[in-house]
Automatic annotation (TrEMBL):
<feature type="domain" description="NAD(P)-binding">
    <location>
        <begin position="142"/>
        <end position="213"/>
    </location>
</feature>
<dbReference type="InterPro" id="IPR036291">
    <property type="entry name" value="NAD(P)-bd_dom_sf"/>
</dbReference>
<protein>
    <submittedName>
        <fullName>NAD(P)-binding Rossmann-fold superfamily protein</fullName>
    </submittedName>
</protein>
<dbReference type="Pfam" id="PF08547">
    <property type="entry name" value="CIA30"/>
</dbReference>
<feature type="domain" description="NAD(P)-binding">
    <location>
        <begin position="454"/>
        <end position="553"/>
    </location>
</feature>
<dbReference type="Pfam" id="PF13460">
    <property type="entry name" value="NAD_binding_10"/>
</dbReference>
<feature type="domain" description="NADH:ubiquinone oxidoreductase intermediate-associated protein 30">
    <location>
        <begin position="278"/>
        <end position="441"/>
    </location>
</feature>
<dbReference type="InterPro" id="IPR008979">
    <property type="entry name" value="Galactose-bd-like_sf"/>
</dbReference>
<dbReference type="InterPro" id="IPR013857">
    <property type="entry name" value="NADH-UbQ_OxRdtase-assoc_prot30"/>
</dbReference>
<dbReference type="InterPro" id="IPR016040">
    <property type="entry name" value="NAD(P)-bd_dom"/>
</dbReference>
Length: 609
């Protein structure tokens, strides 16, 4: 609802309080849900409950006490008429009632008395508006593995909040510390990945991998495993490659995708892939404060930019009876919408040169703070307007609420679009004109701001496309390529898991290291694409690359292999007293191209340029 506390042709405080009394009368289950005619309304209601400048009865006004119950509404059939004062217009009580009951009912008595006290105590002093909080937890899956535990260590050194997904809690706390934020679950078992475990997670580094170990066994600290399968005869230990590398990846993506967000955003209203997503819009105009403006929301099946369907917010706005706004508002969502993965809302609409407001509510109460932002449109032009969540301002009755809680994008209850004479805190809309208006709106979606960075970084393996590659000399390939079949098609399922990530719609980066070693980071690197290189690379280096990939737009939606320039035959060491500086991985990421996976050689398709 829009009410104004300003001296410019706005209702007085007493008028607003009277209006609140009227609304209170409509509260209670005893009020019939049926269309009212003006003749059936008790004269006490019409003469005094409504703000006096709006309406006047032909017979003598009476005093209304707010404590009167709604039973008075139908105690008799009133035969008088409603007339407007000079320069005023008749008020549509029936539309007022229909508006109230389309939504969730009028304010509670408690809210009324809070409002009364607020009015009597005067405006609060200006204070800075509370800033929106952020939560950027990075989930590390496989956090006790060779790469995973190094990812955790590096994230914590950077002060980045981290949550570890592990199967063995005791092992994880011994390895990562007793204060580590843990999820105990198994990606091969969907039932262990409960939605609440991932609250606050915005990015994921997946270092889970099927376990490969020596047939003859290993030392307690897995010394043979750490050398790489080049140095032992391998076999699969535990769950199969299909369960870990394919089913597990599918379960993990499904568990986190809503938390980390989709590249193309999340549609709230409109058409996507020939599927229409509706919202239950209703008019909420200045009739609720005695005005006569009127609007509606309709679907035009051919009015869209390309001849498709679009919604249309249209109506007539008038300042008669101290009014001056029209709006459409959704009914409260049955389940709050979580948009915490996104940066704002994007409206695709055909402008008319006027300034409108978007109001987002995070409370199910009828009359409450609305987080508001104004936006300008270009006349006669289809445009996409992005409204960052950080620009939303807490507004109640056209005034800023400086002590309101920060906007919570994880708990969105309703949306509202408004065309109003007023902005907030006494400011006027410079584009406001009385009369008819029309605003076609084809879609509303949440968006990720540019430049988009990877939200899901996956540690894969070089060689995943090679087992089936025609003309390849397997004798010159690493053991995993030669032994793919013997190892239950480990690389085949790794590639299938990669495909799930690429097809998920989540912004990703897929890192394919060559053979992993326990050597320190710091060697010069070679990045490549197309799945052709062989060599070795430090687990510590891979962990740093993964973290850098989360932060770089150049790594987003790229698949690449990486190795050090040091050959297998030469160990790599560093001076602990003089370690090499950390690399700027953007130097490597900038040369990567989208769409190159190595599958081009299997599908006989050209490599993207």
């Amino acid at each position: 609802m829009e009410c104004y506390s300003t001296s410019m042709s706005s209702p007085s405080s007493s008028s607003l309080i009277n209006l609140q009394c009227t609304q209170l009368l409509f509260q209670g289950s005893s009020f019939p849900h049926r269309k009212l005619c003006k003749k059936s309304v008790h004269p006490w209601l019409l003469s005094s409950a409504l703000p006096k400048p709006f309406l006047q009865l032909t017979d003598k006004p009476r005093t209304l006490i707010c404590q009167q119950t709604s039973a008075y509404l139908f105690s008799r059939n009133y035969r008088g008429t409603i007339s407007a004062e000079a320069g005023k217009q008749s008020w549509d009580l029936g539309r007022f009632v229909r508006t109230i009951y389309f939504f969730n009912g009028p304010p509670s008595p408690a809210k009324f008395f809070d409002f009364l006290i607020e009015k009597l105590s005067g405006p609060s002093p200006n204070k800075p508006v509370n800033a929106m909080g952020t939560s950027d937890i990075v989930l590390v899956a496989g956090a006790t593995g060779g790469v995973g535990r190094r990812v955790v260590d590096n994230l914590r050194k950077k002060g980045i909040p981290v949550r570890a997904l592990v199967r063995n809690e005791d092992k994880a706390r011994r390895m990562l510390g007793p204060d580590i934020d843990l999820i105990v679950g198994d990606i091969t078992k969907e039932s262990t990945l409960l939605p609440e475990y991932f609250n606050g997670v915005r990015k994921v580094i997946n270092a889970v991998s099927v376990i490969v170990g020596p047939k003859e066994g290993d030392t307690p600290d897995r010394a043979k495993y750490s050398q790489g399968i080049k140095f032992f005869e391998p076999e699969i230990k535990g769950d199969s490659p299909e369960m870990v590398e394919y089913t597990g990846i599918k379960n993990l993506i499904n568990s986190v995708k809503e938390n980390v967000g989709f590249r193309n955003g999340k549609l709230l209203f409109g058409t996507e892939d020939n599927n229409y997503r509706p919202l239950d819009w209703g008019a909420l105009d200045d009739v609720v404060m005695g005005g006569v403006s009127e609007s509606k929301f309709q679907i035009d099946p051919t009015g869209g930019e390309n001849g498709g369907a679009t919604g249309v917010f249209r109506g007539v706005v008038s300042t008669a009876n101290n009014g001056g706004f029209t709006s459409i508002r959704t009914k409260n969502f049955s389940v709050p919408v979580d948009l915490s993965a996104y940066d704002g809302l994007e409206l695709h609409l055909k402008g008319d040169g006027r300034r409108y407001k978007l109001i987002v509510r995070t409370s199910s109460d009828w009359d409450t703070v609305g987080y508001t932002v104004g936006f300008d449109t270009v006349g006669g032009q289809w445009q996409s307007i992005r409204l960052p969540f950080s620009s939303l301002r807490p507004i109640f009755r056209a005034r800023t609420v400086s002590d309101a809680p920060p906007f919570d994008p994880s708990n969105i209850i309703s949306l509202q679009l408004m065309f109003s004479k007023f902005e907030y805190d006494g400011k006027l809309n410079p584009t406001f004109v009385e009369g008819s208006f029309e605003l076609p709106i084809s879609s509303i979606r949440a968006y990720l701001k540019d430049p988009i960075t990877a939200r899901f970084v996956h540690v894969g393996s070089a060689g995943v496309t090679r087992p089936e590659r025609p003309g390849l000399d397997l004798s010159k390939q690493p053991p995993a390529v030669r032994l793919n079949k013997e190892l239950d098609f480990i690389l085949t399922f790794k590639l299938k898991g990669e495909d799930l990530i690429r097809e998920s719609g989540v912004p990703y980066a897929i890192v394919r290291p060559c053979a992993l070693t326990e050597e320190p980071a710091g060697a010069d690197l070679i990045f490549d694409q197309g799945d052709n290189i062989t060599g070795k690379i430090s687990r510590e280096e891979v962990a740093r690359i993964c973290i850098a990939a989360l932060e770089s737009p150049y790594a987003c939606d790229k698949t690449f292999e990486v190795k050090s320039v040091i050959p297998f035959s030469e160990p790599f060491t560093v001076d602990p007293e003089n370690p090499p500086p950390e690399k700027d991985y953007n130097i490597y990421f900038k040369n990567l191209k989208a769409g190159i996976t190595g599958k081009e050689a299997l599908e006989q398709s050209p490599i993207p340029v």
